[in-house]
Amino acid sequence: MQSANLDPHVTITVRHEQATDSLKAYTFRKIAGLHLDYPKIIEARAILDVQGRRHRAEIILFCANHITIDASSETADMYRSIDETIDKVARRMRKHKTRLLKQHRPPEEVRDALNRTL
Fold first, then answer.
1. I need a labelling partner for 108 at 20 to 30 A (CA). Which of 30, 31, 43, 90 fits?
2. Is the whole model's pTM more than 0.90, yes or no?
3. Considering only CA atoms, which of 34, 35, 36, 29 is closest in space to residue 12?
4. What are the chain's domains?
5. In whole angstroms, what is the distance from residue 73 CA to residue 59 CA?
6. Cα gap 85→80, rounded to integer Å
């Protein structure tokens, strides 16, 4: 577990609605729960917007090595929008981690040769 991501700097902005403490706490808890995945989160921004019956959540993560991951979703409920956006961000973080791991893997011929010698 990466202990450096346990307390990322989170900025929560709510547009066209009053920001309740429970909504801010829920958003902060969800973003802080992303600490198990790579890359290391330096800063997170959450933009919550309400326009009529549309509730839109956008989350932007600024990570180490100049990695920026962002996602947004729009539903009829703000909490569901936040959940869907967090799911998208987590998927993109795992995808980025997999790409990095594949880049550092030795070529297949080298792995086969190592397996035959062992």
1. 90
2. no
3. 29
4. 3-117 (3.30.160.100)
5. 9
6. 9
